[in-house]
Amino acid sequence: MRTRTLTLSAAACAALLAGAALPAQASGTVNPRSAQEGSVSAASLLAKVTSCSQISSGKYRTDEETSATIPVCGKNGAVFWKADMDIDCDGQVTSRCSADTDPRFQDDTAFHQSNGQPLRADSLPYVVVPSTSSIWKYTSSGIKGGGVVAVIYNNKVEYAVVGDTGPTSIIGEASYATASALGIDPDPETGGTDSGVTYIVFKNAQVSPIESHTAAVTLGNSLAQQFLANN
What we know:
Blueprint: H1 42-46, E1 73-75, E2 78-88, E3 126-130, E4 148-153, E5 156-166, E6 173-175, H2 176-181, E7 193-202, H3 213-230
Parallel strand pairs: 2-6, 3-5
Antiparallel strand pairs: 1-2, 2-7, 3-6, 4-5, 4-7
């Protein structure tokens, strides 16, 4: 939840984990195990999003100084966009995510773990969706906190959850853990990538608990198979 500059937004950082330990079902490792998760290939998913039926009223910028060129597109059972990836390190304070290492750090996320704590950006793959505006209202597309996202980059698929909201006019942001799993530099100051990331957000789906990456992969793979069959 930040206003981003042309370089990047939030990301990786310092200080010990604040508060209670993560629930047993939470993603426990700093880096998710695999950069190709599930049985559905990146190529199969990308083949279904070669054209855009725009559902957003306008287009988004990838950064503050760029022009608005990114539409949100609709498909059966999902919405998608193709953009950059800025790094979000918001949420729990950890050795990688804190005000000491991220000048735009915020110690909260729009959606919280099952124990009420903010999400942990350096261990949980999550995606940031634009806050509601005249351009697009994500909830009207069946998207909610904990929704499942297939994030595709460099022929790899990583399943993430909808974990935070961002600026109303900017799109293309995901957590430290998402970037790291896909081989993208997760550093808050120098990391991210300028292009080449596809975000497929499945409608009317929710991971429970939101902090369980294993549950996100299981549900995401099932929804990806449905997506291939229905498009």
